[in-house]
Design goal:
Length: about 325
């Protein structure tokens, strides 16, 4: 018998992609609300309690409200908003971040989907903190660029529309108040004592993402080498299906990238993993061994949103983890 799933907020960017990934699966039946009753609390409550599993693709306050409408103890919830990512009683939905995380997700009725930027940052940093290569109190910086779809319908309309309502911007930095909503989960799920300095940006491409953590290796106690970091990441993610570490040879080849007559060659494309649930990690070290750049490449709407939600849903319902992915 198929499990029933209700996507609350299925008309949004993430909701549409989740529905697309679930479409045609014989093991799932999608429940949909009458569009005319989308804002009817009684109609929503009925579906929220009737489904075996619910995926919330809503703003934070609306997600909290949706959870409050669930009275059934058997309904499983995946929340794609920021509302519950550091909340007690909620499992964090990054299955690869710890060896026991899959079991935590599978055993929970409440799972908070990670943010797209934190997925890259945690994926790079947590294994190195656990290995003792980066101290928990070490100050870190994370620089990142995302496709404009990460900003939802408003930003999509701005980048895809013509002026004056649209924009000609090729690149835009934001988060200048240093209080981005992803910071709490970045600290909480890496084992860091404090949040990093986070410098997010958006580029003129619809989806895809690069997340980078630069390191002054000479300033880190123990002075790890780039090779040490690479070995630790490879060991941590060995055998993983959706998170992979680029080989040392591949990283070395990429380091030959330079500006020439034909333009830049052998670079990292933020769109390379679009429409997948994959994340790829890279380690680059300077020739003198004093600096390193850790880089994560992923789809902000894939492993950074809808792909992770489907992966978590599969785990919670006892289905094959990669189904639909």
């Amino acid at each position: 018998m198929a499990h029933t799933v209700f996507i609350d907020g299925e008309s949004g960017t993430t909701g549409l992609q989740i529905r697309e990934r679930l479409a045609g699966r014989a093991d799932l039946e999608i429940l949909s609300i009458d569009p005319a009753r989308r804002k009817d609390a009684d109609a929503r409550a009925e579906l929220l309690n009737a489904a075996d599993a619910v995926v919330l693709c809503l703003p934070d306050d609306a997600a909290r409200e949706a959870v409050s409408l669930i009275s059934s103890n058997s309904v499983k919830v995946v929340d794609a908003s920021t509302a519950h990512r550091v909340a007690a009683g909620w499992a964090y939905g990054f299955a690869e971040m710890a060896k026991d995380q899959r079991a935590a997700i599978a055993g929970s009725n409440r799972v908070a989907n990670p943010g797209c930027y934190p997925t890259g940052f945690i994926g790079l940093v947590r294994p190195l903190v656990e290995a003792g290569l980066i101290p928990s109190d070490f100050p870190l910086t994370v620089n990142a660029v995302s496709g404009y779809s990460g900003g939802g319908k408003g930003l999509i309309a701005e980048f895809e529309g013509a002026p004056p309502a649209g924009t000609h911007d090729a690149f835009r930095i934001y988060g200048l108040n240093l209080a981005h909503k992803h910071l709490p989960e970045m600290a909480a799920h890496t084992g860091l004592d404090h949040a990093p300095v986070f410098a997010p940006s958006v580029g003129r491409f619809a989806q895809g993402m690069i997340v980078e953590v630069p390191l002054q290796l000479w300033a880190i106690p123990g002075k790890p080498t780039a090779a040490d970091l690479h070995v630790a990441l490879e060991a941590f993610y060995m055998g993983e299906r959706f998170v992979e570490v680029a080989s040392g040879a591949e990283c070395a080849e990429l380091q030959k990238s330079r500006a020439g007559a034909g333009g830049y060659v052998a670079t990292l494309d933020p769109e390379a993993l679009n429409n997948t649930n994959r994340m790829r990690l890279y380690v680059f070290g300077s020739a003198d061994g004093r600096q390193a750049r850790l880089i994560a490449q992923l789809d902000n709407l894939g492993k950074g949103a809808s792909g992770a939600a489907v992966q978590n849903l599969n785990l919670m319902l006892g289905l094959e983890e990669g189904a639909g992915l």
